[in-house]
Design goal:
The chain is mainly alpha-helical. It has 18 helices and two strands. The longest helix is centred in the first third of the chain and has 44 residues.
């Protein structure tokens, strides 16, 4: 029986034509999708430059749908959601990335870090801590430890904050001795509230050893000594502090004046305050000097000398309080108006974020930075 090869003559060209058409169709689709994705990306970048975040997000979502395997588009989209405050969608984007089996280890660590930042910005500290701990052996390890330190500070978990700061300090990723001193002072404050004065004093001595140049341990030790009915020891602590760190004088001038009156050392302390009065003069130091003067005329002269060196509405109000303004009722009205006007000028202002407060803070309640408050009042800045 002869083999009929006629069907091969027809079949081969048809198969070739079908394969060629299929390849052309796939190539056309690939080119079409490739053109759509870059256009959406470029459109999104342009909208970002024009500060149109909502429209940029829509463009990036379109780009991700056209090219779902591109991790960079997912990272860009997740970062946009986070910056916009849409933390739920940012978390979903980064969790979707982590669920992919074809993601490289580098991109996986990057997605894990981004997810931790999503939780951190959303205030989900427990989930942020768990996500950050998974980055221990990654390229983001240092950043993760610093973020964990911030979490422990916000949670006021000082033992864990100390352990993390010591680890960072050993790895030479920054100087953390001053922050360690603050952490020990915070623990001492907690112990003092429990009436555990011996424990509090030990912690403060450790804080002073950690950071000998830090003023806070000396200030806290003096306050603890005063609470233990040791005014002479407390005053000596503050005098020693101002001798080595005169820039702290405005912060401790009032406690020094109070302790001087308790110990009968007003004249010596007043002389020290006058000797160390900075230039331009400090409102707090001037008030402390005036408070140690038994003669009202001498006190008013102290305010006047301040005004001669530096214009100050606060000092002007203090000086006017001793002047006769033509009647008790009229004088009370004027002094009340001046007191109301000077209240905002007596506040402390954070140099990092501008948060203002009536009292001095070692850690800003607004931005959580340490030692960001100058020792001078708003009027003096």
């Amino acid at each position: 029986m002869d083999l009929d090869l006629t069907w091969l003559l027809w079949g081969l060209p048809l198969a070739f034509a079908a394969g060629w058409l299929a390849s052309r169709f796939d190539l056309h689709q690939w080119r079409l999708e490739g053109r759509r994705a870059p256009k959406a990306v470029f459109r999104g970048l342009n909208q970002l430059l024009n500060e149109q975040q909502d429209r940029a997000i829509d463009s990036f979502i379109e780009a991700v749908q056209n090219d779902p395997d591109t991790s960079e588009l997912h990272f860009a989209l997740g970062n946009l959601f986070r910056r916009r405050g849409d933390y739920d969608r940012a978390v979903r984007v980064h969790e979707h990335l982590l669920a992919r089996g074809d993601l490289s280890q580098k991109d996986r660590d990057r997605a894990q870090h981004a997810l931790a930042l999503d939780f951190l910005k959303a205030g989900l500290l427990d989930r942020a801590e768990a996500a950050l701990r998974q980055l221990e052996h990654s390229a983001f390890a240092d950043e993760a430890r610093q973020a964990l330190l911030g979490i422990f500070e916000r949670a006021r978990d000082w033992p864990q904050a100390i352990a993390m700061a010591e680890q960072l300090d050993k790895e030479h990723t920054g100087a953390y001795q001053l922050r360690l001193s603050h952490f020990l002072c915070e623990m001492a404050a907690t112990a003092s509230k429990r009436q555990a004065t011996d424990e509090a004093m030990q912690l403060l001595e450790q804080a002073r050893t950690r950071a000998p140049d830090a003023p806070r341990p000396h200030v806290e030790i003096a306050a603890l000594q005063q609470s233990q009915q040791q005014p002479d020891a407390a005053l000596d602590t503050l005098l020693a502090l101002t001798a080595t760190h005169p820039q702290t004088l405005p912060l401790v001038a009032h406690p020094m004046a109070q302790l001087a009156q308790q110990t009968g050392r007003s004249q010596a302390v007043r002389a020290r305050l006058e000797q160390l009065q900075p230039t331009p003069p400090s409102i707090d130091v001037t008030e402390a000097i005036a408070g140690l003067s038994t003669d009202p005329t001498i006190a008013r002269g102290t305010y006047l000398r301040h005004l001669e060196s530096e214009a100050s509405l606060v000092m002007a109000a203090r000086w006017l309080a001793g002047e006769s303004l033509g009647g008790t009722q009229q004088q009370a009205l004027v002094l009340r108006a001046l007191d109301q006007a000077t209240q905002p000028l007596k506040r402390y202002r954070c140099a990092a974020c501008g948060f203002e407060a009536k009292q001095y803070f070692w850690q800003c309640p607004g931005c959580q930075n340490w030692d960001s408050y100058p020792t001078r009042r708003v009027e003096e800045l």
